[in-house]
């Protein structure tokens, strides 16, 4: 495949790091990706040249305003949004989700129903569970043993009482990509809002909110090679109906009405640079075309590695690999497994000692680990593939697991 990973790796200064005499292998992308030099430079440049608060009558403040609005435009291009006015920023996805939940709670009446799922990260469950304080009834959709949503149960839970369906685009623990087109159709027919957690999906696939048409979609830039910034897409016109918490001087207009306090302007400069970086992987006339092409290439490369990892690990008799098959956009390149007789936290620690940075545990997707009955054995070991990972790193993971198993 035409993907020169060695060349792309040169963009990331942190990949030079070693653990003892072993090169660090960053297989922790689902927890946060490494940052390319262009993003680091954009953040530094902001502090060197334009550092100021927003909306002031002098040049550095005007530049700050421009950076914020340019970042909205870049994020609109990344997500396929019709306008930058659909894009709001916050500290991280979780904080934005709680702020949105508080705003939506004022539109909730006792007896309204809310659907969340067992496959989701707690950040896409906890905020909507707070709606129970307003009398909402919360339902959580089961996960099947191979890590998919029980769609029949989801459908059966939907009714005229359903106010909100919160669902992940892709599971951060098993990689499962959910059938959001169907869930969109069902939730719209029920008159419910659909809230999508795209945190794990956005680093691996092109996103198109215009086709998907969610009411709200959230993602987080530190998972796609940027700094720590949360991003909220809202369907045009909808945020104006949400009664957000606001200070008196704060704009009540979209997209500002959910942005409390001073944004992290330097980080936003980095988010813009991260979108440009991803677009740099693609070709096309427009930024959007380059993004779609770039993300498609990145996905193809990552999926091949993830598939290989899955096959290699599955060949080890004491290893169980979880989740559904790869291909046709069904799964993000995230592979979770357990080793018979070993605690997953301990396995991750041993790999870490060899410079293989993987996670062990529940990664805040606690219901997934509970559904699989793995709470007492340390949850899952998760290997996340990002665009800078290599086949050699995958081989090292498999060798290391095999060594752990030697008596
Ligand atoms: C799927 C998913 N949703 C939500 C979050 C929370 O994102 P943030 O750290 O930006 O609040 C994460 C973080 O790991 C995640 O993986």
TrEMBL record:
Transmembrane segments: none annotated. InterPro entries: Aminotrans_V_dom, Cys_dSase-rel, PyrdxlP-dep_Trfase, PyrdxlP-dep_Trfase_major, PyrdxlP-dep_Trfase_small. Residues 26-397 form the Aminotransferase class V domain. Pfam families: Aminotran_5. GO terms for molecular function: catalytic activity. Gene3D superfamilies: Aspartate Aminotransferase, domain 1, Type I PLP-dependent aspartate aminotransferase-like (Major domain). NCBIfam families: am_tr_V_VC1184. This is Cysteine desulfurase-like protein. It comes from Brevibacillus composti.
